[in-house]
Design brief:
The chain is of the alpha+beta class. The chain folds into 4 domains: 152 residues, Glutaredoxin; 56 residues, no CATH class; 50 residues, no CATH class; 45 residues, no CATH class. It is built from 14 helices and 10 strands. The strands form 4 sheets. Strands 2-1-3-4 form a 4-stranded mixed β-sheet, with helices on both faces. The longest helix is centred in the middle third of the chain and has 22 residues. The radius of gyration is 25 Å and the shape is elongated. This is Thioredoxin family protein.
Length: 336
């Protein structure tokens, strides 16, 4: 959706919600069970309530024929985190798309289920069509709320002493920013550089990652080890060939055997590609040999990296999945 179209939809929504038009849909006016989402059914009253409480209006379009709408009702909308968010930060309303066709068309709804979050000023701040699992949907709601809060803070003028006090924290955040702010999931899955959003930041093991959208943020949360750069993002070529530590860059990244390696420059990247086996074990303890096999059977056996727990910031490769916990308990040498 282009910015111009977004603005026109936003202005149209102000008109639809602000001049007395009312949509009533008794079929989806659900009673909130114990601890459930308190769905509204009157769009005008819901909009007025959202403005009065300075909350986001959560419009959920559904359909009685929609399988994934039912699935979200049964899975995502009963999740405690989602229910808690709905009660504390949103004014939720559920509408049938066929009986609210004018509003659905104005908002550009093309598929169900459709979730649209609207600010008290009538601006669309987030939109998603299709099924989202509970955790990903929770992240979607949370990131939208965070963006609105940050925008609100940016418009205000904080006292000078507060700005000075916040500066060191901002500096530390920039220093811990991973991949120069590029989205790790887009880099690994789509093989392209996509700048992450500040509002979709996530701290993991002391590093701050930013994401292109709430969905990929949820993907990272479920399996972060798939997207974290090998060797803590340090260039493997500099470390192996020159014995020094130099940070790698996302634009010189390489995907090898399902792992992301960051090289410091194009020359290092080309060197890695010529002989990846020389550099791919840079963060493997004992050069990828299975510690369990050596510790118990005195056998030198090459482990499998995709069964690698982390030991003292190094990956431990084991021969069989069942030896994973045993490998954790085995004393290994970290010498190169």
């Amino acid at each position: 959706m282009t910015p111009r179209k977004s603005r026109s939809i936003g202005m149209g929504l102000v008109a639809l919600l602000g001049f007395g038009s009312v949509w009533l849909d008794g079929r989806v006016a659900e009673a909130a069970g114990p601890g459930g989402i308190e769905w509204r059914s009157d769009i005008q009253r819901a909009n007025a309530e959202a403005k009065a409480k300075h909350r986001l209006l959560w419009i959920q379009f559904t359909g009685s024929w929609c399988h994934f709408c039912t699935l979200m009702d049964r899975e995502s909308f009963i999740h405690p985190k989602v229910i808690g968010q709905s009660r504390e930060h949103f004014v939720p309303i559920k509408l049938q798309s066929d009986t609210n066709e004018e509003l659905a068309t104005q908002l550009g709804v093309a598929g169900l289920p459709a979730t649209i979050l609207v600010s008290p000023a009538g601006e669309i701040v987030a939109k998603h069509e299709g099924y989202l699992d509970p955790e990903t949907f929770h992240s979607f709601l949370e990131s939208a709320r965070a963006r609105v809060e940050q925008a609100s803070l940016a418009k205000g003028s904080a006292p000078a002493r507060e700005s000075k006090a916040a500066a060191p924290s901002a500096t530390r955040a920039e220093e811990s920013l991973a991949l120069a702010g590029f989205c790790p999931v887009s880099l690994v899955q789509e093989h392209r550089l996509v700048q992450g959003q500040h509002a979709l930041s996530l701290e993991h093991e002391g590093r701050v990652y930013r994401f292109a959208n709430p969905i990929v943020r949820g993907t990272f949360q479920r399996q972060p080890e798939r997207f974290i750069p090998v060797n803590s993002g340090r260039c493997p070529v500099h470390q192996v060939d020159r014995g020094n530590v130099k940070p790698g860059e996302a634009r010189f990244g390489i995907l090898f055997q399902g792992h992301l390696y960051l090289c410091a420059d194009e020359i290092s990247r080309a060197q890695f590609m010529k002989n990846p086996e020389r550099y791919c074990h840079v963060d493997l303890a004992d050069r990828g040999l299975c510690p369990h096999c050596w510790g118990h059977d005195f056998v030198l056996a090459k482990g499998q990296p995709h069964w690698s727990p982390v030991f003292d910031k190094l990956r431990v490769s084991t021969v069989e999945r069942e030896t994973r916990e045993a490998a954790r308990r085995t004393e290994i040498s970290t010498r190169r």
